[in-house]
Amino acid sequence: MIEYLPQALSSLSTALTVGKSIMGMRDSTKIQEAVIQFNSAIIDAQSKILASQDEHTALKGKIAELEQECLNFKKWEYERSQYIRTEIASGIFAYIDKDYSGKFESAHKYCCNCFDNHKKSTLQQFRISEGRKTGLSCHNKCPDLIFFHYIDVS
User: Fold this and answer.
1) Which of 31, 50, 79 marks a domain boundary?
2) pTM score
């Protein structure tokens, strides 16, 4: 953006010089050539200014986009601080609300893989009748978590 300013000022300076020289001319052909040169310098300055404005607008858009991204990260960090990674069964972890007290079977659980990637994906519980196992599945296609029983919470 800044690089266009000296070029625009140079074009305007040229236009000013040409304008001053027109004032002292008497020959209509020379006046016409000078006017063409004057107009060319003005058009060149305008194009530099427009290019600068376009770049400025693009940069303002990028700044707004980055500010929104920063805001989203702040919101996520606050949201993330409300949950804690907890072992709910032997070797099985999930994110649950920090303030949750009760049996893990009843807790609202988020997938660790998704949560660590800034997504909240609720784990859905299912039963496997063969072997009397319990499973948790993530709708984002993460591997199912299969175990025999939840850890007892004291």
Assistant:
1) 79
2) 0.62
